Amino acid sequence: MQLLQSLPMNLGLGWAVALIPLLPLATFVLLGLFGRHHFRNNAGVIGTFSLFISTLTALYIANGYFFEYGSVNGVYQKIMALQITWLEFSPGFSIDMGILLDPISVMMLVVVTFVSLMVHIYSLSYMKGEERFSTYYAFLSLFTFSMLGLVISSNIFQLYFFWELVGVSSFLLIGYYFDRPSAVAAAKKAFIVTRFADLGFLIGILILSFQAGTFDFNELIARLGTASNPAFQSATAASFMGVSALTWGLVLVFIGGAGKSAMFPLHIWLPDAMEGPTPVSALIHAATMVVAGVFLVARLFPVFSVSPAALAIVTYIGIISALFAAVIACTQTDIKRVLAYSTMSQIGFMMFALGVSGNAGESGLGFTASMFHLFTHAMFKALLFLGAGSVIHFIHSNEMQDMGGLRKLLPVTHICFLLACLAISGIPPFAGFFSKEEILLAAYTSNPAVYYIALVTSGLTAFYMFRLYFNIFWSKAVPAHAPLDHHHGEGGFPIVLPLVLLAAGSVAAGFIPFGKFVSVNGKALETELHLVFSVAPVLLALAGILLATWLYKKQNERPAAISASLGGLYKAAHRRFYIDEIYVFITKKILFNLVGKPAAWFDKNVVDGMVNGTAEATATVSEKIRGLQSGKVQQYAMFFLVAVIFLAVIFIYLWK
Amino acid sequence: MMEPGLYHILFISAALFFIGMYGFFTRRNLITMLMSIELILNSVNLNFIAFNKYLWPHKLDGVFFSIFVIAIAAAEAAVAIAIIINLYRSHQSIDVETAEELKY
Question: B39 in a domain, yes or no?
Fold first, then answer.
């Protein structure tokens, strides 16, 4: 951990980075307190402008970090740009607030500010005329602040702090339309499920930092990630139920990450979260917040890599989620839900890429691939959601059967959406191709079983994305109730600009030599494309696209026939494999009956019984002795006298 | 003339105490009851002084206690008279029976 503490620009750098999250925080406070009355109409402009400055700062920092001072002798350093003691419990033991710059945090800074800026601009038009326009922007700013704070956290407790803030702002934004019962339910569900996962995260943090004796990431990694360190040895020696404390800590931390990243089986909140406004879905539930879990695993990756068991869990949860979500996505009819399951599937890709990665040089390909996919996915998934938002804005419905034939009516959206679909399907030369290729290669070299599942899943990805694409833009002629008066058409400049910029990103992002900048140990990793290796995935993707074309380009009977012939499987996938029902069964039938009811009985009869019993006993006794308190002063004095005489007799004559 | 001894004074003090007690139990007038209390307190004072003078003549503790008691008695009288005046204002009487309803 060679810090650049000697450099004079260090302090200035720290505050420059701190500016990136602090600007949205300032916007949140301003709009949250005064927005309703003073900035009713220009809240959007204020929020967008302040975020624009943040974005520029982030780009400036990224430029400086990657090209000027970040790399020392070809290795990217972890720069502790700022450190403030925040809560000091005792000398030497404190929770700090700090900024840690390393390739992944700088990359995340750029992704978060950029996507957030796109969403801010998009919302200028999309959310126009909303009653709580300024509140919306205040919440967006709060979210951006928390997410930026999360990615630059220098210690695990600070990360947890921002992690919860992110959860709260997600809750607020999902429940933005609070007059809709479904949105309220979805917000609560998202919050409760992620909170439940965060319980695991918190316990994991406590285990890890107890074993390492520090909260600080650099220290923690140095102590737990090296086999010769005493902290590592005690963490692996201590065991609970046959599993070492280190593995327990990592698995529990991963549970937190899985909750936030909607990994199976904690994914149930993500599809429902689509009740929020569509730009919010693009920002939070596709591009940024849901990858926090991936980021967390990547942040602690050197520690994960010393525990093969924890890595195996990451791998298998990732690959199961990827396949599972892809199958469900093929059957959903709500376009946002298709995208939600697609997000879950892609995050599964990132997770298992981390799981199969090693911690050094060439074997660290999975790590680089995962971060690369995170980066490209943020581009095209945000684009897909914003495109879907544009469609929904136009047609006022989320359902596929209300759409079709929109390519003439929404030409820009159509092109951008198509580019994003190609990118996510992994067709060269779009962004998704490069990152997915690397993931598949990493899987191929370390775990063939995972590789084959991933291969099938990427074929499915192409199929369901193009099913979505054809259903929206082709399929029928023009939908019967499409608003043909073009007065709101594609929306204005604020809607088109983000689409175009993100589309450019989706096309070009793949050409960034990502391995040079982001790798597991900071050294440049040469990634090369193996053309022969790429044949299978690309052919599968093309097959998926062709199948989707055959089934959905023109409206026909084939899809119905196929779904009928699949019977139970189709129905199960359509009903999302009954996971929600299982949860309801577990909570309502098992937990409520076996735990809730006895607890309620105990509370009513024993706890309340004790309190009521005390009150009743007091009441009965006082009823009996109230006659003594007559109000006659002289009577009292008489009692007093008699008692004193009595005591005097005892003490003088009897107490010898 | 015979010098009074400790027992004489203790006798007077005891007499004073029981006179005060009697007054406190039998009178219904609050002012009279207050006066009875003063008698009781003064009997205690007498005790203190007597014991101090006859048993520990070179010490002053008993005197100090008496002065304390006198001060407290004065304060107590002030408070009690204030209470009695208020009682009179609201009930037009200073009979101890009328104070019984204060318990509600």
Answer: yes
Q: Please calculate the CA angle A166-A359-A78 and round it to the nearest 5 degrees.
A: 55
**Average pLDDT of the segment spanning A50-57:** 92
Q: Is residue B1 part of a domain?
A: no
The amino acid that residue A189 corresponds to is: K
**pLDDT tens-digit series, residues A253-263:** 999 999 988 88
Determine, yes or no, domain membership for B37: yes
Q: How far apart (Å, rounded) are the C-alpha atoms in residues A652 and A145?
A: 79
Amino acid at the residue B26? T
Pairing state between β A243-244 and A239-240: antiparallel
Q: Which residues of A touch B24 (CB under 8 A)?
A: 634, 637
Best CA proximity match to A156, nearest among A17, A296, A258? A296
- The SS3 of residue A239 is strand
**pLDDT tier, A488 (very low <50, low <70, confident <90, very high otherwise):** low
A347 closest CA partner among A469, A259, A456 = A259
* Dihedral (CA of A568, A570, A571, A573) sign: positive
| Phi, psi of A80, rounded to the nearest 5 degrees | -90, 95
Round to whole Å and give the CA distance between A595 and A431: 50
Total residues found in chain A within this entry: 656
Compute the nearest-CA separation of B54 from chain A (Å): 22
CB contact under 8 A, B100 and A631: yes
Strands, E assignment, A33-78: 71-72, 75-76
Chain centroid to Cα A283, Å, comes to 10
Contacts of A633 in chain B (CB under 8 A): 33, 96, 99
Report the chain B residue with the minimal C-alpha distance to residue A632: B100
Which residue carries 């002289």 as its tokens?
Answer: A634
Our CA-based measurement puts residue A38 at a distance from the nearest CA of chain B, in whole angstroms, of: 57
In 3D space, the residue among A427, A457, A214 whose CA is nearest the CA of residue A329 turns out to be A457
Count of domains observed in chain B: 1
Q: What's the CATH code of the domain at B81? A: 1.10.287.3510
Q: How confident is the model at residue B69 (pLDDT cuts 50, 70, 90)?
A: very high
**How does residue A494 score in pLDDT terms, banded at 50, 70 and 90?**
confident
0.80 surpassed by pTM: no
CA–CA separation, B68 vs B62, rounded Å? 10
Residue B103 lies in a domain: no
Burial group, residue A138, by CB count within 10 angstroms (0-12, 13-18, 19+): buried
Q: Give the pLDDT mean for A291-312.
A: 88
Dump pLDDT digits (tens) for A232-246. 777 777 777 777 888
Give the pLDDT band of residue A479 (cuts 50, 70, 90). low
Q: What average pLDDT score do residues A84-100 get?
A: 81
What is the distance between the alpha carbons of residues A420 and A505, in angstroms, rounded to a whole number?
10
Mutation site, A622, A628, A629, A633, interface B, largest B CB count within 10 A: A633
User: Quick one: CA torsion of A363, A366, A372, A374, rounded to 10 degrees?
Assistant: -150
Length of chain B as a residue count: 104
Domain hosting residue B77, numbered range: 6-91
pLDDT attached to residue A79: 81
Average model confidence (pLDDT) for chain A?
84
* Chain segment A379-402, per-residue pLDDT in tens: 889 999 998 888 888 888 888 777
The pLDDT score that the predictor gives to residue B1 is 65
Peptide bond into A513 cis (omega under 30): no
Specify the 3-state DSSP secondary structure of A80.
strand
With an 8 Å Cβ cutoff, is A632 touching chain B? yes
Q: Report pLDDT digits (tens) over B3-49.
A: 888 889 999 999 999 999 999 999 989 999 999 999 999 999 999 99
Confidence at residue A8, expressed as pLDDT on a 0 to 100 scale:
42
Residue A427: in which H helix or E strand, if any?
none
Question: Rg (Cα) of chain B, in Å, rounded?
Answer: 17
Q: Which amino acid is at A321?
A: S
